[in-house]
Write a structure and sequence with these properties.
The protein has helices spanning 3-24, 31-57, 62-76, 107-130, 133-154. With 158 residues, the chain is mainly alpha-helical. The protein has one domain (29-154): Cytochrome c/b562 (Four Helix Bundle (Hemerythrin (Met), subunit A)). The protein is globular, with a radius of gyration of 20 Å. The mean pLDDT is 88.
Length: 158
């Protein structure tokens, strides 16, 4: 195949991939997909919290703690609230949602909790950069309190 035909084929494939991708995201996601995404986001947060906790309770690894803290902050600042639109109060993602319907009614309190979570996650990245295990542990405790506050108010007992 000559170069111009290869270029044409590659360009055509690229256009088709982009068009398909745009079409796939044109329709709003189904509630089940949104529930899956938010469940996945919180599992990634959980995993990164566990990484930090293991490090501060064992052999401290500044690099691992920093990576985990940045991952948590990225998710905290990614717009998690957009994964809770009306219609996702009930349903199944990877498993049944554990969200209480009150979350969808108390938007002011939820916004406050979300902002607090982001603030503490961002602070965790700063503290992690310092490399002080005790300071990281203390900040991780502050972050965990923001999680607990939301869980206490808006998550069904498992």
């Amino acid at each position: 195949m000559n170069k111009s035909i290869k270029t044409f084929v590659a360009s055509t494939l690229a256009v088709l991939v982009v068009a398909y991708s745009l079409d796939a995201f044109a329709a709003p996601p189904k509630p089940e997909k949104l529930i899956q995404w938010r469940q996945s986001a919180y599992r990634v947060i959980e995993w990164n919290v566990a990484r930090i906790k293991a490090s501060v309770e064992g052999q401290y690894n500044k690099e691992e703690v920093s990576k985990a803290a940045h991952s948590i902050a990225a998710i905290a600042n990614s717009g998690l609230d957009t994964l809770y639109p009306a219609g996702t109060e009930h349903g199944k993602g990877w498993r049944e949602t554990a969200v209480k319907p009150e979350l969808f009614k108390d938007t002011k309190r939820v916004a406050e909790l979300s902002a607090s979570f982001s603030k503490e996650a961002n602070e965790l990245t700063k503290v992690a950069a310092g490399g002080d295990a005790a300071a990281v542990k203390a900040q991780l405790g502050k972050l965990a309190k923001t999680c607990k506050a939301c869980h206490d108010d808006y998550k069904e007992s498992e």
